Amino acid sequence: MKKVKVLFLVALAVFMGTLSFTASGCKDNPVSSEIIEDLFPLVVGHKLVFSGHLRNANDEEIAGTSGFYEARMTVAATDAPTPFGTAHVLLDSQLVSPGVWATQSFYIQRAAPEGSGDFGFLTNIGRIYRLFNIQRTDSLQWVLLVNQKTGLNGSWDAFVGSWDGEFQGAAATIGLVVKCDQITRETVTTPGGTFEGAYRIIARRTVTVNTTPVSSGTTAEIWLVPNIGIVKFIFHADGESGGFYREYEDRNF
Questions:
Q1: What is the pLDDT of residue 21?
Q2: pLDDT for 28-81, tens place per residue?
């Protein structure tokens, strides 16, 4: 299991934000003003607990894992010195088999641990380097998972990178773009309650070879509730590592 993932992812994700719709003339999805709510308060000691299941490398639910699965996200530190600069730190623990916990650290860059504001997650893109023989060691990259200035119904480039590599034995320029979309505000029902007005963010990746797309897919989907944080989180597998599906169960604040 990778040390650091996008809580795309995922994001979260993902991850995890708001967007603006820059195209003109669309009355169904108007551009909204900047979102000023705190979508993920980072207070040391705050803990979110989730149920759900694990997903295999083909992004399929692993049978039987929903019976024991539990995940916990705990704010461990804010404004902390890390190998990646000053960051806020989440400890992410999940049961990968009955009685066996796996713990990793998520690093978040955000101007302040509380209040409104954009934030990025440190994400491991090492699989792209390995697939295309990219000879670099900087596989941990910051992905802007939340962009509160853009408002609803928009999108932004969360990460853009380009490197020298190989494709089918020939030298090539390899590109990776991660784009995030704020689809809407939704009502989300979880085992721990129903939340109205959750912000949904979807992170999608596109890989190019000499500017030609060769691979694309969804990396993560997250639902954020103001003053609580993540209440639903889908981290999609990438063909090499597995993923997970999480729904809010409880919190200690």
A1: 27
A2: 444 456 788 999 999 999 999 999 999 999 999 999 999 999 999 999 999 999
Could you tell me what percentage of the chain is helix, strand and coil, using 3-state DSSP and rounding each to the nearest 5?
A: 5, 60, 40
Arithmetic mean of pLDDT over the chain: 88
Q: How far is CA 74 from the centre of its chain?
A: 16
* pLDDT > 80? residue 84: yes
- Residue 199 CA to residue 185 CA, distance in Å, equals 5
Q: Which run of H or of E encompasses 223?
A: strand 212-225
Residue 35, both tokens = 């979102």
Assigned token pair, 153: 């119904």
> Would you tell me which CATH number, out of the four given (4.10.410, 3.30.300, 1.10.3470, 2.40.360), belongs to the domain 9-160+180-202+218-251?
2.40.360
Q: Which amino acid is at 118?
A: D
Domain ranges of the chain: 9-160+180-202+218-251
Whether the predicted pLDDT of 5 surpasses 70 = no
